[in-house]
Design a protein that fits this description.
The chain has about 1000 residues and is mainly β. It folds into 2 domains: about 70 residues, Immunoglobulins (Immunoglobulin-like); about 700 residues, Maltoporin, Chain A, CATH 2.40.170. The strands form 11 sheets. The chain has a 22-stranded antiparallel β-barrel. The termini are far apart.
Length: about 1000
C-alpha cells in the first residue's frame, strides 16, 4: 500500500513538472519605433523581476508562459504591455511619448522635456504650417501658455507685440530676445511714417523647424542682461540622412475685413445733423440758421435734398485682398553630409486700400562630418520684403479715417477725380497722387564647427551675422492733401549689422550608471552697428519726377551712426541622479557699452531642480500615473533695451546765427545699469493613462527692479532730466496646459491641446512715489502698469439730454461739466487671462485641426469715439447707435442730445472705454492625403490638398472693429481708426517626392 502511494506521489510530481515545462515557452521578437529597431528596451514579466533587454538590432528572447504579461519600456517612449498567448513571436512598435522625448532648445544646447527643470514652451513646424498669414510669429498665438501675441492692426506689415508672462518693463523694451540658430536677431522698428513695422516679416514659415520660448528666469538666465522679457529661440530645418526629398507647397487665398461697423446712411445722416444744428441753436445760439444746410450743400455738391449719393466710405477704405504662397525645399544627405535648401514667395494684397506686401526668401543649411570627431556647417538665409504702405492711424489721409466722411459726399466727381469738398481731406487724393514704399533686405548667416576633444567633451565655435537693410521712399504730389509745394519726396536708408561670436565647451558624460552630467562653459561677443541717412526735397517740375534727384530744393537731411557691444561669459551645469533627481545651475556675466562706466558688468545666475516622482518605487508600476514631475527654479535676468547711449553725457553740433557750435543734449550717469528682474517658478508636470493625458501647471512671481526713468532735474543744471534706475514692477501668475489623446486607433485619432495663463502686474514703486500720467494712462503705485485714468461717464440727464459724469469727490454726485469731475483708475490695458485650444483630428486620409484663442480682462479705449460716436458733435459720420440719442424730456438713453459743436458728452471718459474680451477662431484647416496605393502609382511620396482659414470667427461684446487691434500712432491699449484684422480662406496643395 505504501509502495503504491509512493509511486502515485512520484507520478503526480512528474506530471506537474512535465505540465510546467509544457507551459513554459521561449518568446522572441523585435522592438522598434518610427525610426527602426530599438536597442536597450527593457522587457519584464509583469509582477516579477524577471526580464531582459533588446540587443543592438532590437531583438529580445525571454522564457515565459501563456498568460504572462510582457512589459516593454524605454525612456521617452510609451510603455507597451503584451499578453503571451500561443504565439512564439511578439513584435512590438513603441509609440513616442511627446511629454518625455520632446527635445527643447535651451541656448547653447538642447535637453529632453523629461529632464527639463525650466519652463519652456515648444511650438513645432506643424503648428505654424499652412496658415495664410505672412507673419510667422503671429501664427503662434494661442499655442503657448502665458505668451500673448498680437498684431497692432490689419495692415500687412503691422508691428507685433509679444509679451511673455506680461509686461516686465515700463520705459525700456518689452519684447523678447529673438535668437535664430544661435544668432540674436536685430528687432528694432525702423519705420519713418509714424506706424511701426514688424522686422520679423523676413522669416518664412517653410524654413522653420521649431520655436522654443524660454519663459522663466532659470531658462533665460543663459542670455543674462537680455532675457528679462523672455527668449524666443527659432530653429531652422536641417537635412536628414537619406535620399533627396523634394517638397512643394502652393496656396491661394482671399481676404476680407474680420469685422465691419454700422454707420449712418445718407438719409440718417441728414436727419441727425439737421436736428443737431437746431438743438445747438436752441441751446446756446449757435450754429446760426442755415449753417448746417450750407455745409450739407458743400459736402454733397448740392445734392443732399435729392438723395443722389449714399456713399459707403468703409467699403472704399476696406477691400477684398488675397494671399499667395509658393514654397519648396530639397533635403537629404548621406552619412557624412546633410543639406536643406528652401525658397519661398509670398504675395499679399492687404484688406486696407493701398497696402500690399511681397516677400521672397531662400535658405541653405548644410552640415558635413569631416572626421568621426570633427563636424562643420553653415546656415545662410536671404530675404527681401517689399511693402506698399499707408499713413499711420492718426493721419487724415489714412484710409480708415475715411469713415468720418459724410455719406452724402461722392467719392469721385463727374470727371472721375477724387471729390475734394469732403468733411476732411479725401484719402483717395493721397491714394492717387502719393506713395510710400518700404523695402527690407536681410541676410543672416552662421558658420559653426564642433570638435570632440575626448569622449563626451566637445568644443563648439559659432560665428553668426545678421544684416538688416531698409530703404524707404515716398512721394507726395502737388494735388495730394495738405501739399503746399510742387511735390515733396523723402528717402531714407538704414543699415544695421550685428555679428555674434561664441565659443564654448560642452561636456556630457555618465558618471557610473546612476549619474548623468552635462556642463557648458563658454564666452560670447556681440557687436552691432547702425548707420542711418535721410533726405527730403521739394519743388518738382512735374509729378512724373518722383526722386530726390529732381527736387529743386533740399529742405531736410539727417545722418547718424551708432553701435553697441556685449562681452559675456557663461556656464551651465545639469545633473541627474537615477533619472529622477534633477539639478541645474547657470551663470552669465555680461558687460555692455550701454551701461554706465562704473556699472558695465553684471552677473546673472539661476538655479533649478526637479523630482520625477513617477520613477519612485511607490509609483513606478502605477496603472494610472505614467509620469509625474515636480520642479522649482529661481533666477535673475536683465533688460538691456535702454538705448545705446542712455548712460553717456551727449553733445551735438548746433547752429547759432548760422555759425557752428556744440551744445549738451543729455547729462551722463556713470551708475546707469540694466533693469534687473528676479523670478521664481514652481511647476508640476504629469502624465496619466500611459501618457494619453498629460499636462503642466506653473506658478511664477517676477520682480523687476531698477526701472529706467527720465528723472527731472532743476533748470539750473542745464538739462531737463537724467536717466536713472528707479522704480519697481511686479508680475505674478499661473499657467496651465493640458494635452489629451481622446481617441487613438488605426483609422481615427483625435488629440486636444489646451492652455491658459493668468497674469497680474503691479507698480510697486515710482520715483518719489509720484504718479506718472501720460494721456489716458497712468503709472501709480499699487495699480497695474499704464492703467486707464479717466473721468467716469454717468449717462444722460433724462430731463434735458445733458451728458453726466461722476464727480468722484466723495459726494456720490454727478455733473454735466467734465472739468469738474475727478479722474480715477478704471481699467487694465493688458489682458489678465489668455488661453488657447487646439484640436487635431485624423481619419484615414483626412486631417482636420483648429485653434481657438481667447483674451480676457483687458479694456480698450477708443480715442476716435469722440468723433465717431459723439451724437453729431461735428460733421463726422456717426456709428449707428447714435440714432438712440436723447430727444425729449423723459427719454432714458445713454446717448446725449445731439448739439452740433457743443461737446455734449465728447470729453475723454469711460463712455469710450470697453471690455475687450474675445474668443477667436484663429485658424482652421481641413486636408486630405491621397492613399499610399495611389501615391505608389504616381511615384509621389505624399500628395495633400487642404483648405485653411485664418481669423474666420470672433466672439466678443466689443463693438469696435477688432478687440485685438490697437493704434499704431501711440497710446497704450487704445484704438484710433485702427484697421481690423484680415480673415482669410486659402486653398493649397502639398507635394512630396
Amino acid at each position: 500500500m505504501k509502495t503504491k502511494l509512493k509511486w502515485g506521489i512520484t507520478l503526480l510530481f512528474l506530471f506537474n513538472v512535465l505540465w510546467s515545462f509544457s507551459q513554459t515557452k521561449e518568446v522572441t521578437g523585435v522592438v522598434s519605433d518610427d525610426t527602426g529597431p530599438l536597442p536597450g528596451v527593457t522587457v519584464i514579466i509583469k509582477g516579477t523581476t524577471l526580464g531582459t533587454e533588446t540587443d543592438f538590432d532590437g531583438r529580445y528572447r525571454i522564457k515565459t508562459k501563456v498568460g504572462d504579461v510582457l512589459v516593454f519600456s524605454f525612456v521617452g517612449l510609451k510603455t507597451s504591455e503584451q499578453t503571451v498567448g500561443v504565439q512564439n513571436t511578439i513584435n512590438v512598435k513603441l509609440e513616442s511619448d511627446n511629454l518625455l522625448t520632446e527635445v527643447v532648445v535651451i541656448g547653447f544646447g538642447t535637453q529632453t522635456k523629461r529632464k527639463l527643470t525650466d519652463n519652456v514652451a515648444k511650438i513645432n513646424s506643424g503648428d505654424i504650417a499652412n496658415v495664410p498669414n505672412p507673419s510667422v510669429i503671429n501664427n503662434i498665438a494661442g499655442k503657448a501658455a502665458g505668451v500673448q501675441v498680437s498684431q497692432s492692426n490689419g495692415k500687412v506689415e503691422a508691428g507685433l507685440n509679444v509679451r511673455v508672462r506680461g509686461q516686465a518693463s515700463i520705459s525700456a523694451g518689452t519684447q523678447p530676445l529673438y535668437v535664430l540658430d544661435g544668432i540674436p536677431l536685430i528687432n528694432a522698428d525702423e519705420s519713418n511714417n509714424g506706424s511701426p513695422t514688424n522686422p520679423l516679416l523676413t522669416l518664412s514659415p517653410n524654413e522653420i523647424e521649431s520655436i522654443d520660448i524660454l519663459k522663466d528666469a532659470s531658462s533665460a538666465a543663459i542670455y543674462g542682461s537680455r532675457g528679462a522679457n523672455g527668449v524666443v529661440i527659432i530653429t531652422t530645418k536641417k537635412g536628414k540622412e537619406g535620399k533627396a526629398k523634394f517638397s512643394l507647397n502652393i496656396s491661394n487665398g482671399i481676404s476680407s475685413a474680420a469685422n465691419k461697423r454700422d454707420w449712418l446712411n445718407a438719409e440718417e445722416y441728414v436727419e441727425l445733423f439737421l436736428e443737431a444744428g437746431e438743438n445747438g441753436l436752441n441751446f446756446g445760439g449757435w450754429p446760426a440758421a442755415g449753417f448746417v444746410e450750407a455745409r450739407l450743400d458743400r459736402y454733397s455738391d448740392g445734392t443732399w435734398r435729392d438723395g443722389t449719393y449714399d456713399t459707403d466710405w468703409q467699403d472704399i477704405a476696406l477691400r477684398d485682398g488675397y494671399t499667395r504662397d509658393v514654397d519648396f525645399s530639397v533635403s537629404g544627405g548621406n552619412a557624412k553630409t546633410t543639406y536643406f535648401f528652401s525658397g519661398a514667395y509670398n504675395d499679399t494684397k492687404g484688406i486696407v486700400r493701398g497696402n500690399n506686401l511681397e516677400r521672397i526668401s531662400s535658405r541653405l543649411n548644410i552640415q558635413h562630418k569631416l572626421t568621426d570627431k570633427f563636424t562643420a556647417g553653415m546656415n545662410m538665409n536671404f530675404s527681401r520684403v517689399d511693402i506698399d504702405r499707408i499713413a499711420n492711424d492718426n493721419a487724415f489721409v489714412t484710409p480708415l479715417q475715411a469713415i468720418a466722411q459724410a455719406p452724402i459726399s461722392p467719392a469721385y466727381d463727374a470727371n472721375g477725380d477724387p471729390f475734394t469738398n469732403t468733411v476732411y481731406a479725401n484719402f483717395l487724393l493721397q491714394d492717387k497722387h502719393a506713395f510710400y514704399n518700404t523695402i527690407i533686405r536681410r541676410v543672416t548667416g552662421r558658420a559653426f564647427a564642433n570638435y570632440e576633444l575626448i569622449h563626451g567633451l566637445t568644443f563648439n565655435t559659432d560665428f553668426g551675422y545678421d544684416l538688416y537693410t531698409q530703404t524707404e521712399d515716398s512721394f507726395t504730389g502737388r494735388l495730394a492733401p495738405f501739399q503746399s509745394t510742387n511735390g515733396e519726396a523723402f528717402a531714407s536708408n538704414v543699415n544695421t549689422e550685428s555679428y555674434n561670436f561664441s565659443n564654448y565647451l560642452s561636456y556630457d558624460v555618465g558618471l557610473h550608471e546612476d549619474h548623468d552630467l552635462n556642463i557648458v562653459v563658454g564666452t560670447e561677443f556681440n557687436k552691432s552697428k547702425r548707420r542711418f541717412t535721410s533726405v527730403t526735397g521739394t519743388q518738382f517740375p512735374t509729378d512724373d519726377f518722383q526722386t530726390i534727384n529732381s527736387a529743386a530744393e533740399i529742405t531736410a537731411g539727417q545722418g547718424s551712426f551708432t553701435e553697441f557691444s556685449f562681452l559675456s561669459y557663461f556656464a551651465r551645469a545639469t545633473y541627474s541622479y537615477k533619472n529622477k533627481y534633477l539639478f541645474k545651475a547657470s551663470v552669465r556675466r555680461d558687460g555692455s557699452s550701454r551701461f554706465g562706466r562704473n556699472n558695465q558688468f553684471g552677473t546673472f545666475s539661476a538655479f533649478s531642480g526637479g523630482w520625477i516622482v513617477s520613477e519612485e518605487d511607490f509609483l513606478r508600476d502605477s496603472d494610472v500615473i505614467s509620469f509625474l514631475k515636480l520642479r522649482a527654479s529661481y533666477g535673475e535676468v536683465g533688460n538691456a533695451e535702454i538705448g545705446n547711449f542712455a548712460a553717456l553725457g551727449l553733445f551735438q553740433g548746433v547752429s547759432y546765427n548760422q555759425r557752428p557750435g556744440i551744445a549738451p543734449t543729455q547729462p551722463g550717469n556713470s551708475q546707469l545699469s540694466w533693469e534687473s528682474s528676479s523670478q521664481t517658478d514652481f511647476g508640476l508636470e504629469f502624465g496619466v493613462l500611459n501618457g494619453r493625458i498629460s499636462g503642466e501647471f506653473a506658478y511664477y512671481n517676477k520682480d523687476t527692479d531698477g526701472l529706467l526713468f527720465a528723472s527731472p532735474l532743476p533748470g539750473s543744471s542745464g538739462a531737463t532730466s537724467i536717466n536713472r534706475n528707479i522704480g519697481r514692477l511686479r508680475s505674478k501668475g499661473i499657467e496651465f496646459s493640458l494635452q489629451t489623446e481622446n481617441i487613438t486607433n488605426e483609422n481615427f485619432k483625435w488629440t486636444t491641446n489646451f492652455n491658459i495663463g493668468q497674469n497680474d502686474n503691479e507698480v510697486v514703486s515710482l520715483p518719489g512715489g509720484n504718479d506718472v500720467i501720460n494721456g489716458r494712462n497712468i503709472l501709480r503705485e499699487g495699480e497695474v502698469a499704464n492703467a486707464f485714468y479717466l473721468i467716469e461717464y454717468a449717462g444722460v440727464d433724462p430731463a434735458n439730454g445733458d451728458a453726466l459724469y461722476n464727480l468722484n469727490d466723495g459726494s456720490g454726485g454727478t455733473t454735466n461739466d467734465p472739468n469738474s469731475a475727478e479722474r480715477v483708475v478704471v481699467g487694465n490695458p493688458f489682458p489678465e487671462w489668455i488661453a488657447g485650444l487646439t484640436n487635431t483630428i485624423k481619419y484615414k486620409g483626412f486631417d482636420f485641426n483648429f485653434t481657438l484663442q481667447g483674451e480676457f480682462g483687458a479694456s480698450i479705449y477708443n480715442g476716435g469715439g469722440r468723433f465717431q460716436s459723439a451724437n453729431a458733435d461735428w460733421f463726422d459720420n456717426q456709428t449707428k447707435d447714435q440714432l438712440r440719442r436723447w430727444q425729449k424730456p423723459g427719454d432714458i438713453t445713454d446717448v446725449p442730445q445731439a448739439r452740433l459743436g457743443w461737446g455734449n458728452g465728447t470729453a475723454h471718459s469711460t463712455r469710450y472705454l470697453q471690455e475687450g474680451d474675445f474668443i477667436r477662431l484663429r485658424n482652421i484647416t481641413l486636408g486630405y492625403t491621397l492613399p499610399k496605393e495611389i501615391l505608389d502609382k504616381v511615384k509621389f511620396g505624399n500628395v495633400r490638398v487642404y483648405i485653411s482659414g485664418f481669423n474666420l470667427l470672433t466672439f466678443t461684446d466689443y463693438d469696435g472693429y477688432d478687440p485685438e487691434s490697437r493704434s499704431d500712432a501711440g497710446g497704450i491699449g487704445q484704438v484710433f481708426y485702427s484697421a481690423p484684422a484680415a480673415k482669410t480662406v486659402s486653398i493649397g496643395l502639398n507635394l512630396t517626392f
